[in-house]
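Dear colleague,

Following up on Tuesday's group meeting, I ran the structure prediction for the two-component complex that the binding team flagged. I've pasted the input sequences exactly as they went in, so you can double-check that nothing got truncated or mislabelled along the way. The structure tokens for the whole assembly follow below. Feel free to forward this to whoever is handling the docking comparison.

Inputs:
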Amino acid sequence: MQVTGLMNMSEPSSRRIDVNAALGWLAELFETSPDDLSPETPRDAIATWDSLGQLLLMSALDERFGIRLSQGEANGLRAVGDILGILRRHGCLENGNAR
Amino acid sequence: MSAILAPRAAAQALSVDRLAPHVARALGMATSQVLEAFRPAAPGDLPAILDLRRAVAGNGLWWDDERFLRWRYFDGMPGSERGPYWVFEHDGRLLGCVGLEPVTLVVDGVPHPSVRSLDIMVHPSVDGLGIGALINLLLFRRYPLMLVTGTSERSRSLIGRMFSEVTALGASKLLLRSRSVLEGRLEPHLAVSIAAPVVDALLRLRRLAGRRVRRYGLRVARLAAFDDDVDALAGHSERAGRIIVRRTSRYLNWRFVSNPRCSHAIFGAFQGNRLAGFIVTRFNTARPNPRGEAEIVDWLVDDEASPEEADAVMAALLEAGLGYLERQGASIVRQLTSDAESQRRTRGHGFVLRPDERLPFFIHAEEAALHQRLARGGWYLTGCDFDVD
């Protein structure tokens, strides 16, 4: 059975990741290739970032990073870079650029 | 277990427990409240349901929606429980609704109660908050086997991740009259008037090719309604190696004869007094239909017939059905078929497959063994289905 690996990863050591790891994590979440994602990728370019994708994102942010988005924050997510911005603001993203 | 054959939602770790809190937060509710918000509709909900459906579909509802809902869900089939209709209510306001049609899916001769999920709707003011996805997850808890035919372009990805796609029905079209097509391509009007009769004659000649089969003493008659004969006919299909939806005279009469949204024409093929097959056609002029499009909605040929006899029954039924639609003024006949054999049979009558027009069919089965059997594909509810809501 396919396991997404999105759950049970809330240990402190796994709460800080670099940009490339974050893109890989998002690619897994949205069932796409990491090569298709960059901070500039808009939401509407990701077919699976629909209402279900948004729910899974909110759930995964909570489970892995302990980040609970407000509805305003959730509504403001328009591109992959916005998700990275959330991770950065919560201290979960290491400094550095995408590959 | 193969990843492909794992229940799709389970493989993605989609669950009510995981996702409901986030829907609740988006709506400003407690998780327990969001679970209680989804409940079976009562007859008193009908006005609010009608409002919700109008808010979602706008002018797309060309039919008398109250009459339709009463027929399909609130009154239901005579002598049976009404069809399940569920609503999602928050602060006295309906935010979502979904209708289900109970059917029996017969898998290798074993009946499995199931539901077809028909028209799930979420109010535009709360679109994107995940209510539609949550509704599906809550339905999975109550209905162990769910079937979905077709999706909107927008919900294609969501349904594809929550359910498993089994097959994609292939659309094919037959041109009975060329005028509506030529008018878009030929100028001036005189050219159309000259060309159309010639093209129509050629189309008719092409359809005649489909008649070149042995007749096996078949007689085709238009039927006002189905009777017990169809129960025996359909029963022959409920056997090992086959997956099919159970069709009874009561179900078919409810669905096609008493359908308030449009009328259908039913033809039966008989060998002596034995029903050897039927076909159901629809030419709906109540809806906006400028191109004169008609549909073949359903058919069934006796599963015990030899391949040659089955070809003959199908040819006789198509000939009767298409002739009727032509006399009614239809220009184009559409159908959806699930298998190469059905497509071969209709190709002989001039139907042309449209590779770019496909209608996906999805299932969700809680039981792993049943899911594996169904997800292998190679089947559909009937040989042909255009009765999609």
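Chain A is about 40% helix and 0% strand.

Cheers,
M.
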